[in-house]
Amino acid sequence: MPTSTELSNARHHHSDASDRASHNPPNALARNAEPGACPDESGIPDEDDSAGTAAVTRPSARTAVDPAPTVRRPTIADGAHMWRIASDSGELDVNTAYAYALLARDFRDTCRVAMVADQTVGFVTGYRRPDAPTTLFVWQIAVDPAFRGRHIGGLLLDALVRDLVDVVAVETTVTQTNDSSRRLFGKFADRHDARICESPLFAAADFPDAHEAEPLLTISGLAR
Ligand SMILES: CC(C)(COP(=O)(O)OP(=O)(O)OC[C@H]1O[C@@H](n2cnc3c(N)ncnc32)[C@H](O)[C@@H]1OP(=O)(O)O)[C@@H](O)C(=O)NCCC(=O)NCCS
């Protein structure tokens, strides 16, 4: 059994050197973005999510993926693929393979995998916050390096939130230096006409290992 530390210690922390875009979307968060006060979003009573098995597609504005990527809930077998993609990411703190198998079984409603043909090329893991079930916390998201830059990350987020019809806010933590992730969430907020704000959450001193601070991004007011 993994320890609680093993289950909770996997967030991204490395720098992403890919800051290649010249156009910043309105919600693109700069590395030096000032932490702002986050409004208190009132919750809506939790509802069981029974959707999420249908594949969705979104055309890529960058490079066509042939065949088009699809998104679905993970199966237990996807746990191993999620572990591999996390291990290959070069960014994420890698959970145990056991943890990904557990997530794929017990949190499948709030996790998704992206498929190209029969290959698992990306995943997102998340959960409803126990104290605020209409807030989705996105724990990890990663795309196989060979498939990055094709908006598969955005496709995963869009498909997950589309299925969680009662979710009104998305939270995640992103290091100051993870430009790709900041752009991913900034553009997600733009697509959903949502507000995004940044506030302190986990300081470097909160981690026992060499780990950057993990400020909190709160995306609220999702257009449904
Ligand atoms: C963050 C991540 C999931 C984005 O997935 P994606 O499918 O590549 O997302 P997008 O195609 O929308 O690209 C998002 C940004 O990544 C960057 N990017 C684009 N192509 C890239 C490539 N080939 N390699 C790395 N980054 C790239 C760009 O900054 C892009 O922003 P832009 O579209 O405004 O130019 C992916 O880069 C990844 O797996 N990173 C490692 C894991 C990680 O850091 N996860 C987030 C924290 S949990």
UniProtKB/TrEMBL annotation:
InterPro entries named among the record's database cross-references: Acyl_CoA_acyltransferase, Ectoine_EctA, GNAT_dom
Its EC number(s): 2.3.1.178
Annotated region (Disordered), positions in chain: 1-73
Biological pathway: Amine and polyamine biosynthesis; ectoine biosynthesis; L-ectoine from L-aspartate 4-semialdehyde: step 2/3
EC class (word): transferase
One of the GO BP terms on file: ectoine biosynthetic process
Keywords: Acyltransferase, Transferase
Domain N-acetyltransferase: 69-214
Gene Ontology molecular function: any one: diaminobutyrate acetyltransferase activity
Matches recorded under CDD domains: NAT_SF
UniProt family annotation: Belongs to the acetyltransferase family. EctA subfamily.
Protein known as: L-2,4-diaminobutyric acid acetyltransferase
Originating species: Occultella aeris
Lineage, broadest ranks: Bacteria, Bacillati, Actinomycetota, Actinomycetes, Micrococcales
